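Colleagues,

Please find the record for the two-part complex below.
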Amino acid sequence: MLARLCKINFVATLLEVRDLRTHFHTSQGIVRAVDGVSFDIKEGETAALVGESGCGKTMTALSVMRLVPKPQGSIVGGEIHFQGRDLLRLTEQEMREIRGAEIAMIFQEPMTSLNPVLTIGRQITETLEAHERLSRDTPEARALELLRLVGIPDANRRLSDYPHRLSGGMRQRIMIAIALSCNPKLILADEPTTALDVTIQAQILELMRELSRKFGVAMMIITHNLGVVARYADRVHVMYAGKVIESAGARDIYQNPRHPYTLGLLHSVPRLDQPRKAKLDPIEGQPPDLWNLPQGCSFSPRCKFVIERCKREVPPLRDIGAGHRSACWVAETLSQGKVSSS
Amino acid sequence: MRQYILKRVLLMIPTLLGVAVLVFFLLRVLPGDIVELKYAGTGTYAPKQAIERERAQLGLDKPLWQQFLSWIWGIVRFDFGQSMWTGRPITHEIAIRLELSVELALMATLVAVLISIPLGTLAALRQDSWVDYFVRVFSIAGLAIPSFWLGILMILVFIIYFRWLPPLTFTSFWVNPKANLMQLVWPALAVGYRYSAVATRMTRSAVLEVLREDYIRTARAKGLWEKVILVRHALKNALLPVITVIGLEFAFLVGGLVVTEQVFNLNGIGKLFVEAISQRDYTMVQSLVLLTSFVFIFVNFVVDLINAWLDPRIRYQ
């Protein structure tokens, strides 16, 4: 029991993102896609990055991989510590050795994320070759083992098959197999199930959870689906307009949200435990215009709890107790009761 | 796959038959026939009987459908008949020129491939840099400069600065490779440059498009070396449209190099074509059109096979 407690207390931080800033230069001006994002991921933990489209979730993940689309996008500031090394200071060659081997990534579109002219086997073995992770097994044997691991039926035959012969769900399983191939410490999954049928979504997520537990891989799931968050994530980081505006344990976020935007998100999702006729409460106003963000808190134009200070000063992400952080001036006085009575 | 190949080969027959019908009857619509032209060339008065006799000799007095059927029947037996103008067998007339034309087309294709694929890829990788601008200007110039003009320029430079002229008579590569190459390298460069312009622009845009694909991002996320990403993932996909363009252009070159052949004094298929048409050498023109159509169809078929080999999505359809 004591050992277990100690273990929990001393779980090392795997990834530390500090004040990350990734900007895009467009013809209409600079877009601060990621604007001072900070969060941690501990070893073996599953974190969720939540927010509406265009809030900078994907760019945060691509920044960690240092794969921000060039030349429009560039990381302009911050630090990304991974196992004690600042990824932003590594050379391109050192970074290549980390990609796919230490940090792997799964993408949103399984239909286009695999190369149509290479066999599935080749797309797995080339990752092994690139990182020389070939112990006693041949790459082919390891690829076969991986396909079986992610539940591909008739794995032997599938090795020499091409991606277009597989369904979206099967292809996403292949992507998971590729991600796992070099036993990475961290997998970044960018909306891994958004493009899939609902029934397949659950299968893929269950598979990812099972495998991440089995191999002790930490995961960062990027999603806008709060159902996914509730079921699979340990910690949640909510993003809005390029910033993390609330971080907390998954349970905590649901029971005790401390940012008006998170509150809004929770109220705009239909819930089975509410009467069927209960009205959904969408967030008022328009999603933020990234070229033209308001002064002060970027959520202030849509916020029900806005005070004068919100329009002048950007609220920092600050501790409000028990591993809960919020970027709201009135975080302490927010409560769910208040929002439902208003 | 075997079934697919068989189907494609069998489909060539109706296509070629269509070409045969078209060229046969179009030629007969042209004013003036071969016999009249022959006598016009001599400048003497031709009695009507002599013309009639000559026509009968060439079989031109028979009804059109009979002429057509006997021609087709000959082709089925690989007997293309004689040239109406020279009386020599058509296969002989074409054979001595086909070697030159095919060799020139192959060399020009080689030049075009060697220029276009590296340059196009480089331009795509360095998009909007000075390298890209240089390649774009270079290829636009290739499109704008007619190859016969480039050929004339080359010959002038040789004569004026080197007091040297490429050999004027064709020597087979198998007899004397050096003399053969000395003659054909220059037209191959002139034609290949123009030809590379289209292929360079195609390569550039195809590589640019492929580099934006999701699977390239996946390849990067897997930590592959940039060289592997470029060759294995990007080029293999990008070359599909480029191969199609190169194939079509090659087929065109086998029969279409009329002006360049003139400039370099080459006795190729293009020149034979023009002569045969102006002489109303019916059998010769028919055979040449059939031959160039066959080359087109065949090259297309080969291109499709290469594409199917490169792209499994085509192969499995």
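The first strand of chain A starts at residue 13 and ends at 26.

Comments are welcome before we finalize the supplementary table.
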